[in-house]
User: What shape does this take?
Amino acid sequence: MLRLSLPQPSQTKDEIVKFINGVIEPQTETYNLALFSSSGVTTWCPQFQSKLDPKKGLADSLKWLNKNMTAKSCAAQAYPPDWVSVLTKFVAEGVTLPWRIYVCCSRAPEGRTEEILELIAHLRSTNESPAKGEPLLPLNIVAFDPTIVGNDEEKVFFTEVAGPDGNFLIDTSAEDLTALDKMLKAVQVKRKQLDKLNKKLDKMENLSDRVSEDRALLQMQIALNNMIANDLELCDWALKNEAGRSKPSSPGAECQT
Assistant: This one.
């Protein structure tokens, strides 16, 4: 097992501790930790160590990680870190190959990707699986730089390094938590505004009874207006029909022959 120092040490360290307690402790017998930078590789133990060792066991590895992986130590390192050195350290002649390699990093090492891809291809072609039925040099990589999301070059590089039996993920949890924090603060502001409006509403006079009375009066007024309108239409119709009737003819003189 190995870990890569990077510009987000606190977040990465938390994830490593979760991984050790959740995966290494229940499923692994031996493992090792390493921090590597542009200046070299630092390992917890010179070789893979039993997690049950009373002095150099799992608890000691966590102490070592907490002591050596700090914001100050990571900030002092130049970029990019030396991937070649750490790969050759764990995959050297005469060294037992690790069954799994886990890497935490920020992004692909600029200017050295082709060299690393050639090295990992060479290591896989010149070595054999450490055990029957086990994959050869699978790398499980987690990158913590949110700016590489959607970057095809980064995806191609890490996918090839991980290999067919490895995996590559981008951890954007820090960015997501920042966005969530902004949303919660915005909701808090809106909540305060709503509370102020509710207090003003509580102080206002309750006009429900008056509204009910006014609504009843309005309905009565509408009914009266409709009735008057109907009466006017009826009167208008009667007047028009009265004017249209023919007047009675006056008696005429009798015609004489």
Notes: Residues 1-5, 253-257 have pLDDT under 50 and may be disordered.
